[in-house]
């Protein structure tokens, strides 16, 4: 090869540098593999999305403000999963149905 130095001291220096670089690359590969494995474990351990959710008011004592289909991105951060009968009861008691995911239509609830 014509791109390498001809003398032994510089070749040894290059060898040392390449070994060091290879070690760093292998360490980064190990870190990336651990991160990917953790992400997969997290996805597998994630609880299932509830079928129906109630969006809570600003404090924990306030009544629910909206009913959503589970997984609706409009539900905000203050929600809890509920069974079908609780979602239907909330709609009959006047809790607003989300205009985006339309849980009233999904539940077969006709207002009035």
Description:
- This protein has 112 residues and is α+β, with helices and mostly antiparallel strands.
- It has 2 domains: 1-46; 52-107, no CATH class.
- The chain has 3 helices and 4 strands, in the order H-E-E-E-H-E-H.
- The chain has helices spanning 8-45, 84-92, 103-107; strands at residues 52-55, 66-69, 79-82, 96-97.
- The chain has a 4-stranded mixed β-sheet.
- The protein is rod-shaped, with a radius of gyration of 29 Å.
- It starts with 7 loop residues before the first helix and ends in a 5-residue tail after the last helix.
- The relative contact order is 0.12.
Tally of helical segments: 3
Total individual domains: 2
Instruction: Give the termini distance in whole angstroms.
Output: 86 Å
**Could you say which structural class the secondary elements and strand pairing correspond to?**
alpha+beta
pLDDT below 50 for ≥5 consecutive residues: which ranges? none
Helix content: 40-55%
Shape verdict: rod-shaped
Quantity of strands, as a count: 4
Q: What's the SSE pattern?
A: HEEEHEH
Strand count, sense and barrel status of the largest sheet are: 4 strands, mixed
Q: Let me know the average pLDDT.
A: 92
Spatial arrangement of strands, main beta sheet: 3-1-2-4
Report the β-strand fraction as a percent range: 5-15%
Radius of gyration: 29 Å
């Amino acid at each position: 090869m014509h791109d390498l130095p001809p003398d032994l001291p510089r070749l040894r220096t290059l060898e040392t540098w390449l070994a060091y670089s290879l070690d760093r690359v292998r360490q980064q590969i190990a870190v990336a593999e651990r991160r990917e494995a953790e992400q997969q474990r997290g996805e597998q351990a994630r609880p299932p999305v509830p079928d129906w959710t109630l969006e809570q008011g600003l404090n924990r004592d306030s009544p629910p403000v909206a009913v959503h289909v589970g997984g609706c991105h409009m539900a905000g951060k203050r929600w809890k999963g509920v069974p079908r009968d609780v979602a239907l009861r909330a709609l009959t008691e006047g809790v607003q149905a989300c205009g985006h995911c339309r849980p009233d239509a999904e539940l077969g609830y006709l207002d009035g």
